[in-house]
Amino acid sequence: MTTSPATRARILIVDDSPFEQRLLADLLAERDYLVSSAYNGRQGYEVAASARPDLILLDVRMPYMDGYAACRLLKANPDTQDIPVIFVSGADAEDERVFGLSVGAVDFVTKPFSGPELAARIQVHLSLMRRAAAPAPAGRSDDAEPDMVLVNAARRLIDDDLANVPSLDDIAEQVGTYREKLSLLFRERMGTTVFAYIRDQRLERGARLLRDTDIDVQGIALMVGFNNAGNFATAFRERVGVPPSAYRKASMDGNSA
Fold it and tell me: Where 4-aspartylphosphate occurs, residue numbers (predicted)?
């Protein structure tokens, strides 16, 4: 006896290969899942945002937008951030698998895959998702608006590793857009440029490290993306009004008061 459609898990397959689409669809149909499909990352993200599937099987290498960029957008959108994403891809290098997990996927399965194993992983993640599910907030969050999703995805990419921020072209590509659009959206939505945002985040992170750790100024400078302590100190003094050493001393004096 089949399960009621209202209770059957809905799974979105995102893969540019019709053969792989059919292989996955047949596997899922045997387990009585409801299946939908998309053929590139952009289409997959749009389908997920509108249909809200229970789980997404996502390829990595696809035209128009790759799986990594699609996953970044899914995790930056409050409407889709809780949907489990499993990468199913021929990209089997360790660094690619680790990167897939770092952008928000819950699992990474390499092709060719074992049908029973993939089905078991899907079931595990569906069960975990149901246990963690909370009531959806009423109304639509401004952060779910498409332009804000792009901005927030780019912010998350920048904030994740301030010491090694990619070029503006690479940031835009990794969130599925182009530099001119991303620059415009930052000015419209954040009131600043991408480069000014990066600088502000570096100085803010530096100030937090000065307050909360005993790492030396040179170490902090490198951790937040400055080439040396001198450049960091100059930028910090311009922003805060005092050099890093004086800021740290004042913070310590305030904490001991």
Answer: 59
Residue ranges of E strands in the chain: 10-14, 34-38, 55-58, 85-89, 107-110
For residue 154, give Cα distances in angstroms to 135, 164, 240. Answer: 27, 14, 26
Mean pLDDT of 165-178: 95
- Summarize the chain as % helix, strand, coil (round to 5): 60, 10, 30
Q: How many Å apart are CA 40 and CA 17, to the nearest integer?
A: 9
| SS3 at position 88 | strand
The pLDDT assigned to 253 comes to: 81
Nearest to 87, CA basis, from 59, 120, 64: 59
What does the pLDDT look like over 98-135, one tens digit per residue? 999 999 999 999 998 999 999 999 999 999 888 766 55
Using H for helix, E for strand and C for coil, what is the string for 147-188? HHHHHHHHHHHHHHCHHHCCCHHHHHHHCCCCHHHHHHHHHH
> Can the peptide bond before residue 112 be classed as cis, meaning omega within 30 degrees of 0?
yes
Quick one: DSSP state of residue 12?
Answer: E
Q: How far apart are CA 124 and CA 122, in angstroms?
A: 5
How far is CA 84 from each of CA 124, 163, 228, 243, rounded to the nearest angstrom? 11, 29, 40, 45
Confidence of residue 1 (pLDDT cuts 50, 70, 90): very low
Q: What secondary structure, in 3-state letters, does 201-213 show?
A: HHHHHHHHHHHHC
